[in-house]
Amino acid sequence: MIDVSNSLCDQLVTCFGDRITVSEPGSEIVTIQVPVDEWLEVAQTLRDDTRFAFGQLTDLCGVDYLGYGQVEWETNDATHDGFSRGVEALGPGRFDWKSRPESSDAEQRFSVVVHLLSINHNTRLRMTTFAADEGLLIVPSLVEIWNSANWYERETFDLFGILFEGHPDLRRILTDYGFTGHPFRKDFPLIGNVTVRYDEEKGRVVYEPVEIEPRVLVPRVIRADSRYQADDIDKAADEAADTLTSGAE
């Protein structure tokens, strides 16, 4: 099978130089990180330049890096008594809305991720950028370049609170009109902010404070997976071969 990732990486570096950061060749999908002020220009080139011809935007979403890489449940140093039950992280559900934590470790917290498809070259590309976190999270809209970004950007605005400058109709698409907050942010409480129910006496839907206590039954655990570590696989294979050899003797 022809590895097209190397040639695509070379073309991206040749075209954009140090304006973008390109992932290492050989990855499952080539990924480029673009500064937010270069977002529209790079996107336009990726669509119109015949070397790329990424004519289709297949997906756009947001990412919240609050507490990224932090383990909520220690497992590496587990004893015979069991795993640690200590929870000291910024994961969701550990707090209520008023006491939600701030991101102190993530210099750039919110990212926009776009997946592109070139039918001409049968190649795919992942393009990412970080919103400038200065109170208002603003990223230029890609609707004028790829019309399919319209509803994706509305969804990302609704769930993450990222504003897409230049979007023709940026409003919520999944939550209710009077919804408070953005539910895919990691500082959004798992229990929500309000309870919604139909009041028969008033003859309408009413909003009331949440009475459920926040709790998390499954903590976030980060484990090293030996299936993806070549050295461990080779070591295990060698040990198995030695065992079989010694057993045969």
Quick overview of this protein structure:
The chain is of the alpha/beta class and 249 residues long. The protein has helices spanning 5-16, 39-48, 149-160, 230-248; strands spanning 21-22, 30-33, 56-64, 110-118, 123-130, 138-140, 163-165, 194-199, 204-209. It contains four helices and nine strands; from the N terminus they run H-E-E-H-E-E-E-E-H-E-E-E-H.
Question: How do the helices and strands line up, and which of them pair or pack?
Answer:
Elements: H1 5-16, E1 21-22, E2 30-33, H2 39-48, E3 56-64, E4 110-118, E5 123-130, E6 138-140, H3 149-160, E7 163-165, E8 194-199, E9 204-209, H4 230-248
Parallel strand pairs: 2-5, 6-7
Antiparallel strand pairs: 1-2, 3-4, 4-5, 8-9
Describe what you observe in this structure.
It contains 4 helices and 9 strands; from the N terminus they run αββαββββαβββα. The chain is of the alpha/beta class. It folds into 2 domains: 1-66 and 105-183, NADH:ubiquinone oxidoreductase Nqo5 subunit (Beta Polymerase, domain 2, 2-Layer Sandwich), CATH 3.30.460.80; 68-102 and 188-249, no CATH class. The strands form 3 sheets. A 5-stranded mixed sheet has the order 1-2-5-4-3. A hairpin with a 4-residue loop joins β8 and β9. The protein is flat and about 75 Å long. The protein starts with a helix and ends with a helix. The model has no long low-confidence stretch (mean pLDDT 81).
